[in-house]
Each structure stands twice: as structure tokens, then as C-alpha cells.
Design brief:
The protein is an alpha+beta fold. It has 12 helices and 19 strands. Helices cover 35% and strands 24% of the residues. Helix 3 packs parallel to helix 4 and helix 8 crosses helix 9. The longest helix is centred in the N-terminal third of the chain and has 18 residues. The radius of gyration is 26 Å and the shape is globular.
Length: 417
Amino acid sequence: MSLEIKVPPVGESITEVTLSSWLKKDGDTVKMDEAIAELESDKATFELTAEKAGVLKTIAKEGDVLAIGAVVCSIEEGGAAPAEAAPEAEAAPAAKAEAAPVAAAAEKAVNYASGTPSPAAAKILAEKGVEPAAVSGTGINGRITKEDALSIDQVSENPQTRTAVAAAAAPAPAAAPAAPVKAGERSERREKMSPLRKTVAKRLVAVKNETAMLTTFNEVDMSPIMEIRSKYKDKFKEKHGVGLGFMSFFTKAVTEALKDWPAVGARIEGEEVVYSNFADISIAVSAPKGLVVPVIRNADAMSLAEIEKAVVALATKARDNKLSLEEMSGGTFTITNGGVFGSMLSTPIINSPQSAILGMHNIIERPVAVNGQVVIRPMMYVALSYDHRIVDGRESVSFLVRVKQLLEDPARLLLGV
């Protein structure tokens, strides 16, 4: 008797998903609750699990777009999992010893060749433009696993370590030199947009067309915060188990400024303006499949350490494609940090249905006038994009000035003044 495995409901607004990769092959023996495939919606990636033990019979193919409730595969009865046969093997040690070389040979025969990526790993490498030959596999017989692909992706974001990673991942034997591209030769590569990328594209265009978006700018002297971090970062990490970064200071400053200027954290619903007496801060994170915006709930009631822990937890989930829909829903205000990529100044786009977003940028030492003297200070430009339908110029400018004051005098964050 077989059991059909169907696409489960994953959210009210989601009607279809994409089968991004099979984690098990047709004919494989699977255990109950074992992950067998990865499904991707326009908001998140999640695993499809086996609802009983048996033999997998695939129906859908990788890349297929499936409606909620559509049949993905079936599981046939029969075929015990390898672990279930262990007691019988234990009863005959001699037979087990004789069978070991045969089993090893059989296992080697069905494994992927060295350097071959798994389906999930192949998809990630293709999205990032990384050749499998440049990745050192840690799976059986050198197979490239999903974790291998993700680790290359995460580490390569750091420019200082990118060269070291590439050198470590390069195969030992010298590869034959590639044929030089002749002058005039040109090529193009086409990729189907992922559900997440399509959704992001639609939402960004909708925001530009449906809101009266403006941006106001200011600059922040980061000296006080940098001095605090330098003085207390070791003790902070020792006590709380997490580093003291800039995001917690900015999040805390935003939550305090929202108390003074609540319209910046409001939203329009129909003909009404909805004000919140709480601050759920969305943090923009660059994930392998695109930009995602997880939410820190009740950030206004958190300490700096609690905010830092929440940021690390959500960023890790984002890079591992483990964020749930709940963790990305809601939010009253968004913070995005283009400075980690070297951006000096930008106009961030509002995260609908919110009414404002704060853009952080890189810190540059430059001459500024302080008390009639020219001094060198670490400065950061900040940008606030806002919906002029609900936020007036006075409110937007005053909000950003308040954020600047709190960041340049961090004691105010602790005293609430």
C-alpha cells in the first residue's frame, strides 16, 4: 500500500511552491519524518518530510511549480531502513565481517563521484556562480554537500577571507589552462527567477508606484559608540556570549525615537492610519536566495544584549534558509545596513506596508568642525526613506535628528532621555 505525499499548506497568501531539489532519489528507502525534498515559496524555503517509512517513488521533478495540495511523491511499503537490519547482522559476527568489503564496494558504487554536488548544493552553487571544481566536498567520497555550498557562500561574503577560502578549496593537481577567450566572443546566461526574487521585484515596484516616498539624510559621529565598544566588548561578550555590534545601538535608538514620533512607525490600511504602541523592528539580511527581512519582536522592551542575540539568531537562520513565515511577517519599522558592502550613501526603499526605513552606511574618517576646530572623526551617513502620505517633513527630519542625538550620546539610550 502506498501513501501520497502532498504539498502542505504553508501560509494564507501562498498558493504554490517550487520543488527546488530532491534530497532523496527515486527508489531510496526512507525513514518516517526524514527530509526527502526542499520546497521553495515566494517567502521561504522548507523541507518536505516522509510521513512513513518505505520506498520513495518520485512524481514531481526539480523545478516544477506545484499547487498547495498537489502530489509530490509516494511512499511504498517495504524496504527496511539500514538501521533496522542491524540486529540480524549482530547475530552473525563472522558473516558481518565477510560482508563488510562487499557492502563497502556497493556503497561506493552508488555514491556520487568525488567533487559531484548534491542536488541542493548544485542549485546553491549555480545561483552564486561557483564552479563545483572550486569547492572541497566533505561528504562520502568527496561529495559536495549543501553545507559545503553554504559555507563557501557565507565565508565569501567577507572580502578579507575570500582569497584564503578560494585557495583552500582549490584542487591540489594543477588544472589544464582554460582556452583564452577570443576577442569579440560574447556569451549570455539565462536563469529562471526564483519565487522569492519574483516576489521581491513585484513588491519593490509596487512600493515605488503606490507610495509618496521621500528620503531625508543626516550624519552621525560614531566616536562615542566606537569608544564604548572598544572599552566593553570583551566583558560584554564574556557576560552575554555575543558580540557588541552597531545594530543593537541603532535598533535601540530607533525604538526610542518612535516613542516621540509614532507616525514614523504607523501604516495605512484603507482609509485608516494604524498606530502601534510597540516596536517590531525588521532587519534586512542578505541570504543565499535574496534579501529577507526577519523581525525582532518587542525590540523596545529589549536590552542591547537581547537585541544582539536576536540579530545573530535571525541572521543565522536567514543564511541557512531556515526562517519561518512567522519570523518574516509583520514589523513596524525596518533597518537596513548597506555599509557592510561598502555603501557610503543610498536611498533605501520602504518595506511595505510600513511607512519608513532607516539606511545605515559605512563609517569613514573625515575632517569635521567641532567647537571651531577641524578634527578627524569616524562619520556615518544615515538615510530615512518615508511615505509622505502619512509622515510629514517635520516628523521625518525630527525623527532622524533624534536618532542622531541618541547615537552620539549613548548614555541617553540607558537613561531614556
